[in-house]
């Protein structure tokens, strides 16, 4: 019943030390991770046991010898209770599981998941026709945000077409593109498709990668377009630069996390948009306000130092030799892009970045929270969005200062401390007054003694009193021994409370 995998960590670490020295080095951290997982699993099993016992009781009451597949699937899908355990529990009481019904429920769940994936990818990105696209498409957006190129593929619905009309939503592939396709946590660029004269053809609302690697531009057409047409592709510069600032900031934050929390704080996911950045990382325990402030300070120091952001295309071996961090679970080819920020932050990354950290301007953490066992999330903003965040906080501070009737922000804390002391003093005075009122009430109540068989009883309604007030009256009643039994009732804000006390001789 107790955790046991945790106890095996030192054993495995010793046995495998020659081959996996990192297990020995990180033994304490690994034990914490496994302990948390075991605790969570045990909680799941305990919750599932309680639920399955309820189901068994219902089935037995109905003289039903078969649990439905839907019930078994709910235990599995909602409460994480394995089917095999469900079967073991039911076998003990002579009940079977409708396995075909369970499989049907599982199949329906898979279909729902598949449909959700299809919906989330937009238009025909799951279409088989995309696998047939074999034209060349080169991404040049690291250096150019506007270029003239040729349209070599048009996809409308589920078909390759030679032309599309105004109002259609299509996928376009061009020989070259400055548009970044959504990848590695960084969202796609948006912008416009123009003709050779600069007239608008359509709006690029999203860009994804085709199965064969081409950049698929999701375009809402304003006018018709034909295959092999020469067009201008123009990225929304302001939005693109905002994304770049946030992406480079995630690299700075990643290194700041390691500096403050330790090397175990590895990236566990990220989202880089034009408006904000989100960074998930591995860490057990809370992140303190002091640690968040220190991390935020380190990132802003790197911005203020105006570090150059150097991007190099190199081999994976040379990148690792330079100390570049590779993200667990990512696949890297023989050539990689290494992003080096003053030799402080070095990561492998295919995204777009600023040329100098000073371009980020400002970095502000807006929230930090836990999102799972050993995984936490930081959300932050940069540049103008960070300034806006400070403006919001400044306006709140102005409202507080106005309500406190102080002219300077610096006086707010002193004024609040003053109010706190006055409030504390008022509560003490109020408590003293209530004690006097309770004593007076007690004096009147204790005279109203009635007989009930062999016992004496005081039963009174004392309006507008807290339970604490009733307890204090009861304490005084015990000292005086005014009756064998005391019953006090009170009502506050339509809520009724009752206190009953019994003397030792009457128990």
Keywords:
507 residues, alpha+beta, 4-stranded antiparallel beta sheet, 12 helices
What is this structure's SSE topology?
Blueprint: H1 5-15, H2 21-25, H3 27-61, E1 66-67, H4 69-77, H5 83-92, E2 96-97, H6 99-121, E3 138-139, E4 146-156, E5 159-160, E6 163-164, E7 169-174, E8 176-177, E9 191-194, E10 200-209, E11 215-221, E12 225-226, E13 230-235, H7 237-261, E14 267-272, E15 277-282, H8 289-304, E16 309-315, H9 316-321, E17 335-341, E18 345-348, E19 363-372, E20 375-382, H10 383-404, H11 412-445, E21 450-452, E22 455-461, H12 467-480, E23 485-492, E24 495-502
Helix pairs in contact: 1-3, 4-6, 7-8, 11-12
Please provide a written account of the structure.
- The protein is of the alpha+beta class and 507 residues long.
- The chain is built from 12 helices and 24 strands.
- It has helices spanning 5-15, 21-25, 27-61, 69-77, 83-92, 99-121, 237-261, 289-304, 316-321, 383-404, 412-445, 467-480, and strands at residues 66-67, 96-97, 138-139, 146-156, 159-160, 163-164, 169-174, 176-177, 191-194, 200-209, 215-221, 225-226, 230-235, 267-272, 277-282, 309-315, 335-341, 345-348, 363-372, 375-382, 450-452, 455-461, 485-492, 495-502.
- A 6-stranded antiparallel beta barrel has the order 4-7-11-10-9-13. A 4-stranded antiparallel sheet has the order 14-15-20-19. Strands 21-22-23-24 form a 4-stranded mixed sheet, with helices on one face.
- Strand 17 (335-341) and strand 18 form a beta hairpin.
- 26% of the residues are buried.
Q: Summed up, what is this model?
A:
This protein has 507 residues and is an alpha+beta fold. The chain has twelve helices and 24 strands.
């Amino acid at each position: 019943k107790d955790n046991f995998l945790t106890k095996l960590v030192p054993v495995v670490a010793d046995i495998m030390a020659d081959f996996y020295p990192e297990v020995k080095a990180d033994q304490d951290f690994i034990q914490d991770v496994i302990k948390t997982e075991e605790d969570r699993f045990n909680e799941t099993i305990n919750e599932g046991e309680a639920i399955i016992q309820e189901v068994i009781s219902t089935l037995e009451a109905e003289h039903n010898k078969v649990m439905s597949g839907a019930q078994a699937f709910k235990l599995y899908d909602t409460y994480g209770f394995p089917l095999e355990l469900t079967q073991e529990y039911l076998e003990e009481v002579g009940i079977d599981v409708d396995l075909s019904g369970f499989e049907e429920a599982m199949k329906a769940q898979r279909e729902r998941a598949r449909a959700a994936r299809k919906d989330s990818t937009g238009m025909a990105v799951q279409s088989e026709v995309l696998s047939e696209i074999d034209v060349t498409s080169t991404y040049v957006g690291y250096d150019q945000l506007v270029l003239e190129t040729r349209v070599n593929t048009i996809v409308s619905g589920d078909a390759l077409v030679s032309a599309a009309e105004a109002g259609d939503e299509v996928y376009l592939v061009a020989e070259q593109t400055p548009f970044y396709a959504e990848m590695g946590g960084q969202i796609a660029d948006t912008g416009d498709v123009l003709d050779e004269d600069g007239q608008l053809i359509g709006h690029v609302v999203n860009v994804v990668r085709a199965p064969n690697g081409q950049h698929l531009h999701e375009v809402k057409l304003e006018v018709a377009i034909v295959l092999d047409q020469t067009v201008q592709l123009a990225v929304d510069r302001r939005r693109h630069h905002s994304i770049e600032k946030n992406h480079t900031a995630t690299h700075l934050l990643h290194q700041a996390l390691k500096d403050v929390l330790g090397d175990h704080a590895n990236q566990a996911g990220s989202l880089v948009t034009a408006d904000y950045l989100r960074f998930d990382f591995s860490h057990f325990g809370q992140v303190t306000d002091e640690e968040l402030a220190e991390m935020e300070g380190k990132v802003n120091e790197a911005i203020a130092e105006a570090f150059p952001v150097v991007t190099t295309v190199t081999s994976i071996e040379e990148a690792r030799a330079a100390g570049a961090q590779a993200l667990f679970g990512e696949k890297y080819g023989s050539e990689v892009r290494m992003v080096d920020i003053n030799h402080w932050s070095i990561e492998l990354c295919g995204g777009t970045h600023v040329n100098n950290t000073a371009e980020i301007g400002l970095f502000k953490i807006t929230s930090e929270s836990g999102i799972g066992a050993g995984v936490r999330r930081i959300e932050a903003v940069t540049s103008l969005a960070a300034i806006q965040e400070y403006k919001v906080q400044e306006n709140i501070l102005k409202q507080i200062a106005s309500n406190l009737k102080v002219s300077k922000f610096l006086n707010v804390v002193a004024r609040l401390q003053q109010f706190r002391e006055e409030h504390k003093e008022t509560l003490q005075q109020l408590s003293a007054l209530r004690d006097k009122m309770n004593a007076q009430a007690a004096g009147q109540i204790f005279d109203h003694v009635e007989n009930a068989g062999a016992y004496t009883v005081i039963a009174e309604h004392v309006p507008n009193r807290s339970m604490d007030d009733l307890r204090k009256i009861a304490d005084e009643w015990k000292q005086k021994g005014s009756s064998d039994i005391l019953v006090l009732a009170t009502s506050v804000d339509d809520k009724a409370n009752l206190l009953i006390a019994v003397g030792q001789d009457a128990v």
